[in-house]
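Write out this protein's structure.
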Amino acid sequence: MKNINPLFFAALIIAATACSKKEAPKQVAPNDGKFNVTLTADQMSSVVVKEVNQVPAAEEFTAVGEVSFDENNVVRVFPIVSGTVETVNVSLGDYVQRGQLLATLLSTDISAYQRDYNVAKANLEVEQKNIQRSEDLYKSGMLSEKDISEARKDFANSNSEFNEKKQILELYGGSSERLDATFRVVSPRPGFIVERNINAGTQIRTDLNTNIFTISDLKTIWIWANVHESDMSKVKEGDKVAVKTVAYPEKTFHGTIKKIGTMLDPQSRVIRVRTELDNQDGLLKPEMFATVIITSQTSEKVLGVPEKALVLENNNFYVMRATGSNTFEKIRVQVGRKFSEFTEVTGGLNAGDKIIVEGSLFALTAANQKS
């Protein structure tokens, strides 16, 4: 056997060592400037750069929910007389003002109140003539003190009864000027007609206890989420909530838990959790289905980045990290848990690093093309 040069063995050892180092996993893929890119001022206006920070690692879970009225800001209109609906002046979704006419009913109740009013009015007119005559007789000395006292008492009683019947008539929607047996339903407050349960010809009975209109301004609405018994320990008042709807899949509504129910539904084994949301733009409507993502409060913090900042390429996640003025480098990162608004980063970045959080795909593509 020939003698082998010791230098050959040394070369083999160095090569093997280099190969092993090359295959060892790294948190950051080295690019040596190969995957750097410098953006112009116009390109910078299309991206958003933010600093990477520690964020609460709150546990989150999803519940099914629905949009409902703000019960503290809603009025249900009930009929206070029986009768037949003559006209309905508003439609579902209409905005009404306080005092606006909503519907009219032909009611025998109103007819009875009007009859009582007319009788009281006629009696008062008679007593007015009697008291005037009695006062004249009393002044001329032809009527005793006792008789004038009786006449004044009768007039006062008639006047009191007339005012009572007039108030009752007006309270029940009648008018002393319109004796037409018509009950007028008017809006007690401004808002939207969110429920309408009558049509022309509908028979109304006061003992049915069914509202004919529901009015709400919808500036705030309630989200009721059904939380399963197994998740009850994770929910507390003040927890953050993200709400998504089928109608607006790209939009997320944010709020906090205001109230947790005290009764567990024995059939579904869920408890109702309420969130109040601002609805000034009127997008959310009662009875909409909603997906409710509840984030529990916690003191644990992790390094997190918005999901938009991450770009998946060849089964690896990358971000574009700032290295100078308008200059960014492509960095491979390791990710951990995913939350509703961010993703945990376990390697590749440090707190204080600045990365592109919107427009990262554009910048990364430019870096790839440069290479």
